[in-house]
Amino acid sequence: MDQKTHIEKNTVQETLVIPLYGRKLCTEQFPNLFRDEKAVELIERIDYDFSYLEEKSKSFAHRFGALEVAMRESDLMIEAKDYLESHPYAALVNLGCGLDQTAENCDNGKCTIINIDLPDVIEVRNQLLPETQRIRNVAADLNDISWFDEIPDENGVCFLAAGVFYYFKTESIKKLFNAMSKRFPGGRLVFDTANKRAVKIMLKTWVKDAGITSISDYFSIDDINKDLLPWIKNAVITSKGYMLGYNDLKDPSVPGIFRILSKIADSFMNMQIIKMEFRGN
């Protein structure tokens, strides 16, 4: 038997475990909406005490959280596959990838896949999900745009970011998005976002642990016309509801109360999937 990859508690690498377990949970809970068999496999290959997550997964809140994961991954895959329809040899770039397999799950056998994250994360990814002829794992800080040079964009490029930009300050996002628009004309960026109220809830524990007293500078969108369109240049921007924008959730596996909560999430918390089509200069 192959040796398991050990992940210590209270490390950057531990942050990979929770979303990975979430994808396993949503695969088991909502198989008609989302399946990530690789996540199920990876859980078995990691040396980590999952008992705490297993216990929490029985709760109502964590089951709904699994549904949120399912819809986010499904939404991003829809947009990525749509891009590959017209750009079959494009690069699919997973920003802040963790152990996520969204790009690989969209693989048409022709595209190039680039997974980007911090060095500690890529170290673990290389052990569990090593590179292949068309798949590369790149260690980089997204704020240092020298990583642009790693992207083969001559056949088009589609960037995906799941649960990533909440941890960036708005000024950093402005610089990043405008630099991407200028550098990758014809490219697409798809990511999830929410309003300030929701971001405060999502980042509550992280902010406390990081010693941050306020998250007002962190990226959120209350109104796309006020918080995004005025500063992004040379891009066509559209949005859909995160939970119900791509799927009506009338699948038998989804409890009725979850559909009600999904409506609240898309409206009261303004949870959205944003799609940017870059137009260059």
Q: What is this structure, in a nutshell?
A:
The protein has 281 residues and is an alpha/beta fold. It has 10 helices and 9 strands.
What does this entry look like structurally?
With 281 residues, this protein is α/β, with parallel strands linked by helices. Helices cover 38% and strands 16% of the residues. It is built from ten helices and nine strands. It has helices at 17-29, 37-44, 51-56, 60-86, 119-128, 170-183, 196-202, 204-210, 224-227, 256-267, and strands at 5-6, 46-47, 91-95, 112-117, 135-139, 157-161, 188-193, 235-241, 272-278. The strands form two sheets. Strands 5-4-3-6-7-9-8 form a seven-stranded mixed beta sheet. Helix 1 crosses helix 2 (37-44) and helix 1 crosses helix 4. The longest helix is centred in the first third of the chain and has 27 residues, at 60-86. The model has no long low-confidence stretch (mean pLDDT 91).
Computed CA radius of gyration, to the nearest angstrom: 18 Å
Report the CATH superfamily. Answer: Vaccinia Virus protein VP39
Strand content: 15-25%
Helix-strand string = EHHEHHEEHEEHEHHHEHE
**Distance, first to last CA:** 54 Å
Secondary-structure arrangement, i.e. CATH architecture: 3-Layer(aba) Sandwich
CATH fold-level label: Rossmann fold
DSSP strand count: 9
| Strand order in the sheet with the most strands | 5-4-3-6-7-9-8
**Helical residues, percent:** 25-40%
CATH class label: Alpha Beta
Report the major sheet: 7 strands, mixed
Mean pLDDT over all positions: 91
Shape: globular
The stretches of 5 or more residues where confidence is low (pLDDT under 50) are none
Number of helices: 10
Count of structural domains: 1
Helix-and-strand structural type: alpha/beta
